[in-house]
Specification:
The chain has about 350 residues and is α/β, with parallel strands linked by helices. Helices cover about 45% and strands about 10% of the residues.
Length: about 350
């Protein structure tokens, strides 16, 4: 039920003890956990030795400003570059979204990382933390590019996580450091921000991440703490049966529920399957808070684990990888020209 952050470049004794807790269902890696591909390989092997499988190892490898592993990995342009290309050449943009996803996912899978929390399906409507992480402001374009992105991830053996449900792109606030409120009612959200998520679920996305945004016209609780959003809208109305992740409980916008234990349990009580506890200093308190609760079923967690992957060398020898990386570099050229 918990996906936890780790201390550094190698496992500490505390990390090992935390990974052994039955309440821990996965791990999330950050830049603090990465110095090179060789080091990453050793860290992932150490995590596997502690917990075996199925145990999803996750990261945010979206591209652009959010790419945790950089040295030795392909530089991934932000999704906004693909949206800009769409305005010039729709077909080329759809192909580029699929290539971007395949390169991102295949490189992670070649390093035995299961899951990148991608793609962002928020609308590019001025939010200062989403920014160029989003494809476009038009929900129909986001849906089309998102579907292509899902295809690319699936071809590389990776499940998809749509974020941040029900839509974080149309409010200005950054939930990492402040509360965020969207005053629109459910009908207004159905006509805009919810469209890419509904279409992504129809396309078979395996997971979704809830936003730490409050929509008071729908429910007084932020989406991740809301049975209205998770049960009534996500599950009942949209028919989503996959894994629901919370966003990180360490964010400022998550503090509305109270302390660490209250935040974790509020997410679980509302219907989240897995709760992100990204800061190691919060993990012990989170584990204590959920003792006695039934962990997320292994059969459900297994859906997040990666399919059989190539070795890094075989991936580098694959002509498709080189062709796709070269195509992605044209997006960088467009950015520099602008």
């Amino acid at each position: 039920m918990l996906v936890i952050g780790l201390e550094g470049l190698e496992l500490t004794a505390q990390d090992c003890a935390r990974l052994q807790a039955p309440q821990v269902s996965g791990a999330i890696l950050f830049s603090r956990n990465f110095s090179s591909r060789a080091q990453l390989e050793e860290l992932v092997a150490a995590i596997r030795a502690e917990r075996g499988e199925p145990f999803p190892i996750c990261v945010d490898q979206e591209g652009g400003p959010v790419q945790r592993f950089r040295e030795g990995f392909t530089r991934l342009p932000p999704l906004a570059r693909i949206g800009e290309l769409y305005e010039q050449d729709r077909g080329a943009a759809v192909r580029m979204a699929e290539m971007h996803a395949w390169v991102m996912a295949s490189e992670l899978r070649a390093n035995d990382v299961d899951l990148s929390f991608a793609p962002v399906m928020d609308l590019a409507r001025g939010n200062r933390i989403i920014g160029e992480r989003a494809f476009h402001a038009d929900p129909q374009i986001v849906s089309e590019l998102g579907a292509a992105y899902l295809r690319g991830m699936r071809l590389a053996g990776m499940a998809a996580t749509l974020k941040h449900f029900p839509g974080h792109g149309s409010v200005a606030e950054d939930t990492h450091v402040e509360l965020a409120t969207d005053p629109r009612d459910l009908d207004a959200l159905r006509a805009t921000d919810l469209i890419p998520f509904a279409d992504g679920f129809e396309a078979g996305a395996e997971a979704v991440m809830l936003a730490h945004v409050t929509y008071p016209a729908v429910d007084a609780q932020p989406a991740g703490y809301s049975k209205v959003w998770i049960k009534n809208v996500l599950r009942d109305e949209l028919g989503f049966r996959g894994i629901a992740f919370s966003d990180d409980i360490g964010m400022a916008a998550a503090e509305s529920a109270g302390g660490v234990g209250a935040r974790v349990n509020a997410h679980l009580d509302a219907g989240c399957d897995l709760v992100l506890v990204c800061a190691p200093k919060l993990v012990d308190e989170a584990i204590t808070a959920v003792r006695g609760r039934e962990p997320c079923a292994m059969t459900r967690v297994q859906a997040l684990c990666g399919a059989v992957a190539s070795t890094w060398q075989s991936l580098m020898d694959n002509p498709q990888h080189g062709q796709f990386v070269a195509a992605l570099r044209t997006l960088d050229s467009r950015e520099r020209a602008a």
